[in-house]
Amino acid sequence: MTGAVAGLVLSLGLIAPSVPAVAATNYDIDSASSQQVVVNKHRALNPASYVPATLVRVQGERLRAEAADAYKQLAKAAKADGVNIMPISGYRSFSQQASLYDSYVRQYGQTTADTLAARPGHSEHQTGLAMDIGNASGTCALQACFASTPAGQWAAEHGPEHGFIIRYPAGAEDITGYTYEPWHLRYVGKALALDMQTRQMATLEQYFELEAAPDYLP
Ligand SMILES: [Zn+2]
């Protein structure tokens, strides 16, 4: 197809409806330091020992600077709406993640542990872009019922305006590999978060047309 014809086809809208959500090339989903890096059970951080260059403290937790700024804006906007959101867990290093994962394995066995926490090198918390949030009251902390609390409802509705998505939505366990975590916010930047919301794409895997990652590869 010549450029002129391609341009005409595009301008007539003949291609647009079937065009993929967004070409993955628009974002860097591979580099550990990218705001849009996709980490899951099939996609380890590279290097697995990645440590963000700059971590900023937010109420006792740490996030990468840009995610920390966005988180503060989110918490402030929530407060203006009468909702008190508290950070529970932000950045975790490879070794911190290893300790957490190992404790789950000892407590529940590996199969269940893999649905609850990422193996080290596979955690969004290691990117410095993820924050587990809770209500200031502590209601339903790290439980599915968090979704119907004020903080859970507010974050689901307004998170994208501040660049955050609910990374492990309900009903997407076969894609993300994790049970519903309405408290786990992942910073991806406003443009991507809002576009996912507009297109009603619940997961990064669907948005970037990546394979589902329900389990670790053998
Ligand atoms: Zn989390």
UniProtKB/TrEMBL annotation:
Residues 1-23 form the signal peptide. Gene3D superfamilies: 3.30.1380.10. The keyword Transmembrane does not apply. Keywords: Signal. It comes from the Bacteria. SUPFAM superfamilies: Hedgehog/DD-peptidase. One of its GO terms (molecular function) is peptidase activity. Residues 61-190 form the D-alanyl-D-alanine carboxypeptidase-like core domain. GO terms for biological process: proteolysis. It holds the Pfam family VanY. This is D-alanyl-D-alanine carboxypeptidase-like core domain-containing protein. The keyword Transferase does not apply. Transmembrane segments: none annotated.
